[in-house]
Design brief:
221 residues, mainly alpha, two-stranded antiparallel ribbon, 71% helix, globular, DUF1275, membrane, transmembrane
């Protein structure tokens, strides 16, 4: 059992959640008020639109499939779901930045299919990091995070030991996503769809920092 989180996990989880929070805020404010970092609401909307089988049905289905394809990309890159230094997270982050940049180019011209690339980027990120020391790690939506925290609190009230390490990780993710929503809303109010350049830049910076940290860590061995 790990009693203290490695710094790279703490900062990485916070920044990835921050990135997703920014993208989702921009999506809610600008992509026809469509969330793209998670698909629970999208699946519900898809179900309610199936009876009419109109253009919205196919649009929602494409958002769902795009998220799925993004997650499939992560399956190509990572043989194991456990978070571990040395895996190809840098490459995945660069691909995510490319998907978001494609989304920006299309949405800037009012081409709706740009939303599909944004959804794929979030699917890729959400599948990038799945588990760390027994904790399920999701950085693009908060449902699981809040649920797990609630379960942990309930278990503590029942007398079980509280895993502060896991709770700390979840709080890093939650605060990053929340802060990302604040930043995304501020940026969208000023730059509209061009505010996507912020998460694009952040993804590229994270990739470079990860590669540098990986190089330094290996050099110390």
């Amino acid at each position: 059992m790990i009693s203290r989180l490695p710094r790279w996990v703490e900062y990485g989880a916070f920044l990835l959640a921050l990135l997703a929070g920014i993208v989702n805020a921009i999506g809610l404010l600008g992509f026809q008020h469509q969330a793209v970092s998670h698909i629970s609401g999208t699946v519900t909307l898809l179900g309610t639109s199936i009876e009419s089988l109109d253009g919205m049905t196919s649009h929602l289905l494409m958002i769902l499939l795009s998220f799925l394809m993004g997650a499939a990309l992560a399956g190509v890159f990572f043989e194991c779901t456990a978070l571990k230094l040395g895996r190809r997270y840098g490459v995945a982050l660069c691909i995510e930045a490319g998907l978001l940049f494609t989304a920006y180019l299309l949405l800037d011209k009012n081409i709706t299919s740009g939303q599909y690339f944004a959804s794929a980027a979030c699917g890729l990120q959400n599948a990038m990091i799945t588990t760390f020391s027994g904790a399920v790690v999701r950085t693009t939506h908060m449902t699981g995070i809040i649920t797990d925290l609630g379960i942990m609190i309930g278990a503590r009230l029942r007398g079980e030991r509280f895993d502060y390490r896991k709770a700390k990780l979840f709080l890093f993710i939650f605060s990053g996503f929340l802060f990302g929503g604040v930043i995304g809303a501020k940026l969208y109010g000023i730059y509209a769809i061009a505010s996507l350049m912020a998460p694009i830049s952040l993804a590229l910076i994270l990739a470079l920092v990860y590669w540098f940290y990986l190089y330094v860590s290996r050099d110390k061995r």
